């Protein structure tokens, strides 16, 4: 077996696609050829690096174009000549002749290659985390501003320099840092629908305890919900923020103060009624009792006055 053919067979053997009749010839050649043995070692050394890289799924358009180009290339290939077939059959026949003395070596080589192939197959088909996908569309770019104008002297040619705003889309898990950062920005968007959906998703994540720890830098999901509860003009958004902050009323004084402020000052009666029920676990707190006492006498809604008074009576019985 010549080195040119041996190098092709090394690749086939590495991926477990080498016919059995050629394995013995390749094994014998590797025992006598240092150059081809180095080729195999270099190919094996690439495996750890390749296994550490994420598997990127090609787009449907790319697969379709590749199949079409492959079909065209196969159609253009000339038929195999008689000499080519004879040469292939000759090497197959020679492989059979050399296989008997090296049967033990062949079995070891096939076992190594087969185990390597099974390991690579398991790595390739192991569950992969959902990768974020970015979608860009330069055709929808909007002109943001004009930065400069140059005119060629004594001509009608003008160069206008400007910047564009290009819309983009990301697709990924709610646990993705990029997606979560965009949702935090969406919580303060000017569009009501975007702001409502962002706060709703963040509140649901906070309710289930997903990356909702308090932060001192004024950032994070819990701080975004506090801002929405205090300052958002949409009562529905404030209600969703309350839902996400509910698990932290007893342990986080900032959350408790924000809820008390909503009970005392929120213009929407439904929001105020919701805060009364959420404050039940901390009704014994003096600051909570003070706000409840104020709501039981001064709130314009009679139902809120009633439930606040009942909450005060319940806290008295607990004490």
Tally of domains: 4
Task: Supply the helix-strand structural class.
Answer: mainly alpha
Q: Total number of helical segments? A: 14
Helix content class: 55-70%
Could you list the spans in which at least 5 consecutive residues all have pLDDT below 50? Answer: none
- What is the number of E strands? 4
Approximate strand percentage: 5-15%
Shape: elongated
Separation of the first and last Cα atoms:
93 Å
Whole-angstrom Rg: 35 Å
Identify the strand order in the major beta sheet: 1-4
What does the main sheet amount to?
Answer: 2 strands, antiparallel
SSE topology string: HHHHHHEEEEHHHHHHHH
Mean pLDDT score, rounded?
Answer: 79
Question: How is this structure best summarized?
Answer:
The protein contains 14 helices and four strands. The chain has helices at residues 3-14, 20-32, 34-52, 60-76, 82-99, 103-124, 177-186, 192-207, 221-231, 235-245, 253-265, 269-278, 286-298, 302-318; strands at 133-136, 142-151, 158-165, 168-171.
Note down, in words, how this protein is organized.
The protein is mainly alpha-helical and 319 residues long. It has 4 domains: 122 residues, no CATH class; 36 residues, no CATH class; 73 residues, Leucine-rich Repeat Variant (Alpha Horseshoe); 67 residues, no CATH class. Helix content is 63%, strand content 8%. The chain has 14 helices and 4 strands. It has a two-stranded antiparallel ribbon. Strands 2-3 form a two-stranded antiparallel sheet. Strand 2 and strand 3 form a beta hairpin. The chain is elongated, with a radius of gyration of 35 Å.
């Amino acid at each position: 077996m010549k080195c040119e053919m041996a190098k092709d067979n090394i690749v086939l053997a590495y991926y477990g696609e080498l016919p059995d009749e050629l394995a013995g010839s390749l094994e014998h050649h590797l025992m006598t050829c240092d150059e081809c043995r180095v080729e195999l070692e270099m190919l094996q050394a690439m495996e750890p690096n390749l296994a550490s890289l994420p598997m990127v799924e090609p787009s449907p358009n790319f697969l379709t174009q590749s199949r079409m180009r492959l079909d065209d290339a196969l159609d253009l290939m000339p038929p195999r000549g008689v000499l080519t077939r004879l040469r292939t059959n000759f090497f197959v026949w020679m492989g059979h002749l050399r296989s008997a003395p090296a049967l033990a070596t062949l079995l070891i080589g096939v076992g190594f290659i087969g185990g390597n192939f099974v390991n690579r197959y398991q790595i390739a088909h192991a569950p992969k985390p959902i990768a974020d996908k970015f979608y860009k569309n330069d055709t929808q770019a909007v002109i943001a501003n004009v930065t400069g104008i140059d005119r060629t002297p004594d001509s009608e040619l003008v160069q206008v320099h400007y910047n564009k705003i290009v819309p983009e889309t990301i697709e990924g898990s709610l646990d993705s840092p990029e997606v979560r950062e965009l949702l935090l920005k969406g919580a303060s968007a000017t569009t009501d629908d975007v702001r409502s959906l962002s706060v709703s998703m963040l509140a649901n994540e906070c309710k289930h305890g997903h990356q909702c720890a308090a932060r001192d830098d004024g950032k994070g999901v819990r701080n975004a919900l506090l801002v929405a509860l205090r300052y958002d003009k949409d009562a529905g958004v404030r209600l969703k923020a309350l839902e996400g902050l509910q698990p932290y009323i007893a342990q986080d004084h900032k959350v408790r103060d924000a809820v008390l402020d909503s009970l005392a000052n929120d213009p929407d009666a439904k929001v105020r009624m919701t805060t009364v029920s959420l404050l039940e676990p901390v009704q014994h707190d003096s600051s909570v009792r003070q706000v409840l006492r104020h709501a039981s006498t001064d709130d314009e809604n009679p139902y809120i006055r009633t439930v606040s008074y009942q909450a005060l009576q319940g806290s008295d019985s607990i004490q």
